[in-house]
Every structure is written in structure tokens, then in C-alpha cells.
Amino acid sequence: MIRSQHLSCKYALAAFLLFGLQGIVANGGAIELVLSDLRLPIDFTAGRSFHLNISIYWTLIGMMGAIYFFFSQETKQEIYIVKHINFNFWLIIATIGMSLGSLLLGFNDGREYLEAVWPLKILLAGSTLIFGYMLFRTYLNSIVPKSRATLISMLAGSLTLAIFYLPNIVSYDHPSIDEMMKYLVVHLWEEMTLELMGTGVLAALLINMTKADRRVAEAAIYLDISFMALGGILATGHHYYWIGVPELWIWIGGFFSAIQIIPTIVLLYAVFQTTKFESFSKFNYHEKITLMLIGSSMFYHIFGAGFTGLFMAYPPINRYIHGTYIVSAHSHLALFGVFGFLVLAVSFYILFTKVTLSKTLYQWCVVAIFSLNLGLLTMSAGLTIAGGLQAYCWYVFGLSTADTNTLIKPYLAIRILGGLMYSAGSTILTYAVLKSIWPQLKSIFTDNCYASDNRYYKERLVLTLFKSLIKKQREAAALLQKIKEIVNRSVR
């Protein structure tokens, strides 16, 4: 582990802590929906904003740490200006803390998922710009082929992170334009930016851990990038159906939402083609947990985000389910199911690179993953049934919103049950991580424990370059031999 990778550990730890906090806090709003007379210390609107924002923040900071870790691994060098990894960590932690705290105090910008006040948005934008710039400079200075797909995927995702966020620092007077700008983050961060970052990270992880075939993985990544760039941008149109844009967006959004399932299937195919699952029993405990979390992410990638999103994006269906709890079910399956599990997987792998996971805590981690999956599926089932009843009661029976909300309360109670199972899983998994790394906690926040590993890394890098030089010399010798033969033939 070199210095850049060591510094990324605190990002992974912060992701787990915020993840554990989200699991506990999220149940408050769900309980208040069923027990409306219950008075909680946090206002429902503030609590909902907190929940939506923390769900973005913990996946974001975890993915940033994973990019630092695997980008330096793939480029075989330190991240450009290593000390800025530390600076950026404390900047984004301060931004997250102030954002979540201000939301609880009622300082709300009024835009869903983008509720933080504008000065805090500037800080977050600054963090994403620093992040993208450091990776871009590292990419330019790297000695490995610039065409390496893992690097391009991670870099493209990291740069679009800032590009899509910058227009949302301010609000817009025209409501349609404001909504269109909002979906650059609400949709494109998930469907393109995090997809690109996650695909590159996942490929790098599997290549390193399972010795997967790099050529197969990189071919799939290039195909994925093409579909994500095209489908991700234009499929945003399925959010534009009912916000006052031209009718053409119904057709654009519907068609390109349909092809979004393709990169998901390609990614799944690449994982199965490149990963040697028969060697699962040979992996150590933390590698097994990592693969379990990746498997969970792949499942929701196909069924939670892929097919469910395809069904919802079809315009005649979207007309009736838009604004129902079905959308909430899809959001849980797509955001946490796909990227949540993936961020947990890479963060877990990073933290346990130099820490041993005991057998007892391994067993607790297995229980936690089972509880997370069961809780997520139960929540989504309750929300889906409630959403279906909402659409039926509104458009068939013509019931009012108040009467409909009364009828669907039993199914929202199912959501609470799923939330409690999810919270139990998040608490157990976070506890297992903290329990394991507690003896090494101080070293995660110090910057002087990488020297011996860095020396070893440099020795490996010199050896790699020496082997490359020998290979080039052999290629040159072969070319010179061919030239000599051609010249001899000409002389004759």
C-alpha cells in the first residue's frame, strides 16, 4: 500500500460511519408516515432532506476514496500532489457536516436532493474540482498506456462529477429549466458519473483480487462507456415528461431509457467472464465479504435499477406511477442497491487490505449482508404495493390523497419492518468494521506508516519498467532482423 492508497482509507472509514448513521436515522420519517400523530424531535421535512442528502454523501465520499486507491494502483504511481488527498478529505467532511447540520436546523434551499444552501454547494463543487484535477494530472503523468480502460472510465466519471454539479450551485427562475438542471445530479450522477466511476473501480478490484482477464474486462468497459454516455444523457428525458418540455422528450426518454439496460447486462457478463468464482473458497474472509457485497450490487443492478427502471420509464406507465411510492422503491433499489453495495464492497476491501478480519466478525458480516438485502427487498416490496394502490385509488376509484394515504398505511408499516432489518444490518456491518480496525485507527489518520511499503512499491515499479525495456529491446531486435533481410534481398 503506497501513500495515496493509505490516505484513501479514511474516505472508506467515513463512508461506513455515514452509512451506519443513515440506517438509524432513516427510520424516523418512515415511522412518522404511519403514526402521523407521533411528534419526533426532527421535523419530517428536515429529516427527509437529511436522509436524501446523506444517501448521496456517503456513497460519494466512499467512491472518491476508492478512485484514489485504485487509480494510483492502475497508474502505478502516487496521485498528483498526494497531500491534497488529505486536504480534500477534510474539505468534503466539513462540507457534509455543515450541510447535514444546516438541514436539520431548517436551512433548506427547497430543491429536492439539492437542499443545501449555496455557500455549501460551492464548497462541494470545489472538492469535486480538486478531485478531478488531481486525477487528470496523475493520468497525464502515468507511465502505463493512456488507453487503459479502467483509467479512462474512472477519469471520465470523476470529471463529469464536477461538470454536472456546477450548474446546480444556483437556482433558476423558470421551473422547467430548474428541474432540467436538477436532474444533471439526480439522474446523471447516478446513471452516468457513478456508473463510470464504479465500472472502472470494479474492474480494477476484480483484476487485482481474482486475477481476472484484463483484456475482456477492458473491452466490456469501453462498450459500457459508449452506452452510458449516449443512454445516460438522453435517458434523462424520462424525468422531463411532465415538467413542461416539448413532447419530443417523451420519445427520446422512452427509447434511450430502454437501451440503458444494455450496459448493465454487458457489465454483468464481463464480471462472470473475468471472475474465477471457483476459487471463492480459497479467498480469505475479507475477500469473501467483498465478493458478497459485489454480488448484491450486481443483483440490484439488473433487477433493481435495470428492469424496474425500464418498466417505470415507459411513458404510458410513467404517466400513472409518477409521484407514487413505486418511484421511492426504485430509488432505494437503484441508489443503495447498486451503488451502496458497490461502495461498501470497495471500502471494505480498502480497509481490510492490511487488517485481518476474524472468523467471528466474518460471520457477523455475513449476517449483516443478509439483513441488508432482506431489509431492502422488504422495504421495496412495501413501497411498491403502496405505490400501486396509490395509482389505482387515484385514477380508478378517484379517491382523495388523504383517503388513499389512510388505505396504504399497512404497506408503509411493511416499509418500517424492512427499514428496521436494514438498520440492523448497517449497524452490525459498521460495528464489525470498527471493531476490526480499531487497533489501527490511529494509523489511518497519520501519514507516516507507508514508507516501507512505498519503497517496496518503487522496487516493483523499477522491475516492471526493466521488464518493459527488455521487451521493447526484443521487439526492436526483431524489427532490425526483418530490415536486414529486406536489405539483403534487395542487394541480390
Task: Give an overview of the whole structure.
The model is unreliable at 449-453 (pLDDT under 50). The protein has helices spanning 3-34, 44-75, 83-104, 118-141, 149-165, 175-186, 188-210, 214-234, 248-259, 261-274, 285-313, 315-321, 325-351, 359-397, 401-407, 409-437, 441-444, 451-491. It starts with a helix and ends with a helix. It is an all-alpha fold and 492 residues long. The longest helix is centred in the C-terminal third of the chain and has 41 residues, at 451-491.
Provide a concise account of the structure shown:
Helices cover 80% and strands 0% of the residues. The protein is an all-alpha fold and 492 residues long. The longest helix has 41 residues, at 451-491.
Mean pLDDT: 84
Q: How many runs of DSSP E, i.e. beta strands?
A: 0
Number of helices: 18
Helical fraction: over 70%
Beta content? under 5%
Unreliable segments of 5+ consecutive residues: 449-453
Radius of gyration: 24 Å
Report, as a whole number of angstroms, the end-to-end distance: 59 Å
**SSE class:** mainly alpha
Spell the H/E element sequence. Answer: HHHHHHHHHHHHHHHHHH
Main beta-sheet annotation: none
Shape: globular
List strands and helices in order, with pairings.
Elements: H1 3-34, H2 44-75, H3 83-104, H4 118-141, H5 149-165, H6 175-186, H7 188-210, H8 214-234, H9 248-259, H10 261-274, H11 285-313, H12 315-321, H13 325-351, H14 359-397, H15 401-407, H16 409-437, H17 441-444, H18 451-491
Helix pairs in contact: 1-2, 1-3, 1-13, 1-16, 2-3, 2-4, 2-5, 2-7, 2-13, 3-4, 4-5, 5-7, 7-8, 7-13, 8-9, 8-10, 10-11, 11-13, 11-14, 13-14, 14-15, 14-16
